[in-house]
Specification:
- There is one protein chain.
- With 184 residues, the protein is of the alpha/beta class.
- The chain has a single domain, classed as Glutaredoxin (3-Layer(aba) Sandwich).
- Helix content is 45%, strand content 15%.
- A six-stranded mixed beta sheet has the order 1-4-3-2-5-6, with helices on both faces.
- Helix 6 links the parallel strand 3 and strand 4.
- Helix 1 packs antiparallel against helix 8.
- 32% of the residues are buried.
- The C terminus is likely disordered.
Length: 184
Amino acid sequence: MNNRLLIIATILILFSWGCTNSRERYIKKTIGSELVIFVDSMTKVNNRELYYVEIEKPLKIVVYSDSTNCNACDIKFPLWKIRFRELTRENNNIGLIFIINTEEIEDMELNADAVKAPGLRLYDTKGVFKRKNDLFHERTFHVFLLDKENKVIIVGNPIENSNLYNLYKKAIEMYTDTDNKYNK
């Protein structure tokens, strides 16, 4: 059943973006692969308990930002607050992790706190996450839905694409309703 979702996700993403060959190769390579979160090289701003709660959830949304202009603008904390509340309305077994490559940690925290941004924020000041996970150059491909083993189920930003948002909702519903191991 999970393989069917991966195939459907890939097809929908390709059609919604009018895919080019490099995008298509990246999506095919990424879906099903393990995303590695190198927490030892990152600064954890939120408290330690939140870190373990979010990182151990059966499903996780990982949002990466390395914008040099305005990380808070790039991430869109207010929109994530709304979308994440909608996604977790019926299921709170979903984690949200922001991995942010910036030296301006204090400014980011002020922006995130001002809108009461959900989730865990990790600061990757050395850019390890992007290098080790070989991320695509387009920001829209810097958001991932991961399973418990950190394998990518969906790649793409549900904030910027309503088709992807609906796909995220369906995948979350499928993983939590039909696969009892994710509800434990």
